[in-house]
Amino acid sequence: MQPVALVRDVPDSFVDALVMGKRPTIDLARARRQHDVYRELLALRGYEVRVLPADERYPDCPFVEDVAVVLGPAAVATRPGASQRRGEVAMVAAALASLLPLRHIEAPGTLDGGDVLRLGGTLYVGRSSRTNDAGIAQLTRIAANCGLAVTPVPVRGVLHLKSAVAHIDEETLLLAPQCVDPRLFAEFRVIEKAGGEEHVASVLRLGTGELVMTSSAPRTLQRIRDHGWDPTLIDSSEFQAADGGLTCLSVLVERGS
Ligand code: GLY
Questions:
Q1: How far apart are the C-alpha atoms of 103 and 194, rounded to whole Å?
Q2: Which atom of ligand 1 is nearest to the CA of 130?
Q3: What pTM does this model have?
Q4: Is the peptide bond before 108 cis (omega within 30 degrees of 0)?
Q5: Which residues contact 213 (CB under 8 A, 6 or more apart)?
Q6: Of ligand 1's atoms, which has the minimum distance to the CA of residue 59?
Q7: 97-129: per-residue pLDDT in tens?
Q8: Span 21-77, pLDDT tens digits
Q9: Does the structure show a pLDDT above 80 at 257?
């Protein structure tokens, strides 16, 4: 069955997206061109790309990953840690509910999908400024019904766990050791992000195993190439400016592949 990629259009209000540091200048036209390239790439790689309409009330709405987590046989509609983002959930949840049984994170729990990294049978879940212990506890119960364990991971200096750790292959991670303790990932081979590229080096691993990487982290790219991978590069500078990585821009439903 064809895998599905849910993405969401970029609103004019994206220039006001939440950011951890100083407000950047975001080039809206460039962001939209980058978003087009991203979804064209997913379509070329075999995904049925379902584009949800932007909502001007929610500047961060293109970051669909944060509002939903796919666990294989089920999906979870999250309750984002930033209250301004909670209105983004309903549309993505409705789109997912047509594909998978849907569970929900409820108050007082908060969970951002950017904090959930699935590696084999384990969900590593960032305990970040956006994801709290109640959210992790709820996800742990839902995940157990899907045969998955949960390991919490303290995160520092970046927005989400997946800002710091990326899945390269079954044995290998790309990781920023300043942001997460590498000892929590001791069974994996770790490629460290190059100094200064922690916030821009971002990798999306497709269901086929192909890697897609931001073009703005040349020294980290060289490290990945030195280990034998040759990622497809795309420019996502305007989304990086809003603290978003490549995984943030889609929810992938691999449909049993
Ligand atoms: N701009 C991404 C977020 O703050 O959720």
A1: 38
A2: 5
A3: 0.97
A4: yes
A5: 201, 202, 203, 204, 221, 224, 231, 232, 233, 234, 246
A6: 1
A7: 999 999 999 999 999 999 999 999 999 999 999
A8: 999 999 999 999 999 999 999 999 999 999 999 999 999 999 999 999 999 999 999
A9: no
Q: Of residues 160, 167, 179, 199, which has the active-site annotation?
A: 160
pLDDT of residue 256: 67
Q: In 3D, which of 122, 203, 131, 192 has the Cα closest to residue 160? A: 131
Residue nearest to atom 5 of ligand 1 (CA): 18
> Atom 4 (ligand 1): residue with closest C-alpha?
18
Of 3.30.420.40, 3.75.10.10, 1.25.40.10, 3.40.50.1240, the CATH number of 4-253 is 3.75.10.10
Q: Is the CB of residue 152 less than 8 Å from the CB of residue 127?
A: yes
Average per-residue pLDDT for the chain: 97
Centre of ligand 1 to C-alpha 60, Å, is 6
Kindly list the domain boundaries of the chain, sorted by start residue: 4-253
